[in-house]
Amino acid sequence: MSDAVTASVGAPSTRSRPLPPMAMLAELTHRCPLACPYCSNPIDLTKANEELATEEWIGVFEQAAHLGVLHLHLSGGEPAARRDLVELTQAAVSFGLYSNLITSGVGLTEARINSLADVGLDHIQLSIQGVSPEGADRIGGYKGGYERKIAVARWTTDAGIPLTLNAVCHRQNMSEIDAMIDLAIRLKARRIEVATVQFHGWAERNKAALMPTREQVERATEIVAEARVKYQGVLVIDYVPADYYSSYPKACMGGWGRVGLNVTPSGRVLPCHAAETIPGLSFETVRDRSLAEIWYEGEAFNAYRGEGWMPEPCRSCEHKKVDFGGCRCQAMALAGDARATDPVCIRSPLREHLTRETERLSATASAELVYRGR
Amino acid sequence: MTAQAPLISGSSVVKLARGVKLREDPVRGHVVLLAPERAMALDEIAVRIVRALDGERTLARIAADFAAEFEAPVAEIANDIEAFVRELSIRRMLEFVE
């Protein structure tokens, strides 16, 4: 006891107090009419009767605003599956949070979008799975989805709400990136996210069917660079390149416990949406503890925060200031150790194996899609 | 597909687009400009410029008003304002009234 007191009083902690979070992803529900094979939701989906109630979510939003969160992403599943979406949005706006609805569009009507505009929703991010009804609906696993999305885009801009299209790209739709960018222009989006599939959640099960080829990835990078010049001042293009073909890992989440947090439908607070795939971490819920305590003191948040946890070659690498050691969940999935250097990194001993495996997967002739939740 | 970015000059009249918000950030003690997936911490001068983008005055008028207030050369101020407004425009943060 006295030793512990001496230790904590005697020397200042080497770990400085973390900065407050900038962004919070609220997974309002895991229910979704679509079944995208790359869904980032966990394999073990939360059931409707476990979801936080309206007042609980509103309490979480209020805590988030006090904690320093600026951007609130209302996500899912499909957030429109929550009947209280307008009420939740109104509450978020009242706390000064920048409210962003991340939606498939299915479940939104013109009247509902107008209600969201009336309560002050700041932005809608609409997913697209492709540029043709047949192709897009096959990937989304929902007939009529494409047509509904086109209508939702129109209702959104008619209501004056700024629109972003979100296109997850993979081997089966990567040849459509230029057409997706054109679609964004036609739908009057201000912004498009061209995001190469990340192999967590359901995507991990569909690696062979979704892994892009090296040629596709190189072409995609060229198309994005050209479109950024062509549409400067018209369309903002955010691009998440394929990290399996990169030399250094992505700065996953902007660093573990550094910029943002996720809250699952039942209120568990996670450093990222895939964090539950790391065994041995324990996650707390907003039903048991305040958001601030979980952010600053939670064991899971401090597990890979900063640089103290890093082994070599990360520890002495100058890139650690840029990529924060890459993705912990990817290290877990590919190296079997969440502390390992992200195997995407050219300094990882597993990189050569990953390159061969990536090429093998991308050359898989045909592979059945495993649909989310089906 | 054709789409043209607006040109910026002294005769431009602009305001923040819907979905772009200037707000106090009491936790960090500064003012931020918020847009989809973007948060820009602004210094005092930038805050003054953003607040002046009222959708009524031209950029030249705003520059002249600042020049009078701060007793500074108008050409320099106009350049600074246009450069800053160009950056905001590239990020699709502005609505062009004229």
TrEMBL record, chain A:
* Names of required cofactors: [4Fe-4S] cluster
Keyword S-adenosyl-L-methionine among UniProt keywords: yes
EC number(s) on file? 1.21.98.4
Any coiled-coil regions, as ranges: none
Tell me which residues bind [4Fe-4S] cluster: 32, 36, 39
Q: What does this protein do?
A: Catalyzes the cross-linking of a glutamate residue and a tyrosine residue in the PqqA protein as part of the biosynthesis of pyrroloquinoline quinone (PQQ).
Can you name this protein?
A: PqqA peptide cyclase
Give the record's family classification. Answer: Belongs to the radical SAM superfamily. PqqE family.
Transmembrane ranges, per UniProt, are: none
The annotation note on the cofactor reads: Binds 1 [4Fe-4S] cluster. The cluster is coordinated with 3 cysteines and an exchangeable S-adenosyl-L-methionine.
Q: Per the record, what are the reactions this protein catalyses?
A: [PQQ precursor protein] + S-adenosyl-L-methionine = E-Y cross-linked-[PQQ precursor protein] + 5'-deoxyadenosine + L-methionine + H(+)
Biological pathway: Cofactor biosynthesis; pyrroloquinoline quinone biosynthesis
Q: Does the keyword Metal-binding apply?
A: yes
Q: Name one Pfam family in it.
A: SPASM
Domain Radical SAM core stretches:
18-235
Q: Which superkingdom?
A: Bacteria
* Quaternary structure and partners: Interacts with PqqD. The interaction is necessary for activity of PqqE.
Automatic annotation (TrEMBL), chain B:
Q: Where are the transmembrane segments?
A: none
Metabolic or biological pathway: Cofactor biosynthesis; pyrroloquinoline quinone biosynthesis
Q: Which organism is it from?
A: Sinorhizobium kostiense
Q: What is the name listed in the Swiss-Prot or TrEMBL entry for this protein? A: Pyrroloquinoline quinone biosynthesis protein D
What is said about its interaction partners and assembly? Answer: Monomer. Interacts with PqqE.
Its keywords, alphabetically, are:
PQQ biosynthesis
Pfam families in alphabetical order: PqqD
